[in-house]
C-alpha cells in the first residue's frame, strides 16, 4: 500500500501514533487477530467522528502488512 506523504509525516512526528504503529507492526498474525476482535468489540457502540476515525486507523494498520510498511516509511522519513 502507498501512504500519503502528509499521513506518514503525521505518524512519524506523533509519538502516540508511532507507538501504536510500532506495536502492531511487531505483532504476529495470531496477536493481530486477537487485537482486531478486541478493537471491534471496543468500537461496537461508539459513534463519534473521533471514534470512527480511530477505528479506521486501527483497521488500516491491521490489514495485511500495512503497519510494517508504514513503520518503514516512518523510519525512512526520520532518518533523513
What are the key terms here?
single chain, 80 residues, mainly alpha
Secondary-structure map with pairings?
Elements: H1 5-13, H2 15-25, H3 29-43, H4 49-62, H5 66-78
Helix pairs in contact: 1-2, 1-5, 2-5, 3-4
Could you characterize what this model shows?
The chain is mainly α. It has one domain (5-78). The chain has 5 helices and no strands. The protein has helices spanning 5-13, 15-25, 29-43, 49-62, 66-78. Helix 1 (5-13) crosses helix 5. It is globular and about 40 Å long.
**Strand composition percent:** under 5%
Which structural class matches the secondary elements?
mainly alpha
Q: What's the helix-strand series? A: HHHHH
Indicate the low-confidence ranges by residue numbers: none
- What's the tally of helices? 5
- Beta-strand segment tally: 0
Radius of gyration over C-alpha positions, nearest whole angstrom: 13 Å
Number of domains: 1
Main pleated sheet: none
Please tell me the overall pLDDT: 95
What share of residues is helical?
over 70%
Q: Please report the distance between the alpha carbons of the first and last residues.
A: 21 Å
Inertia-based shape: globular
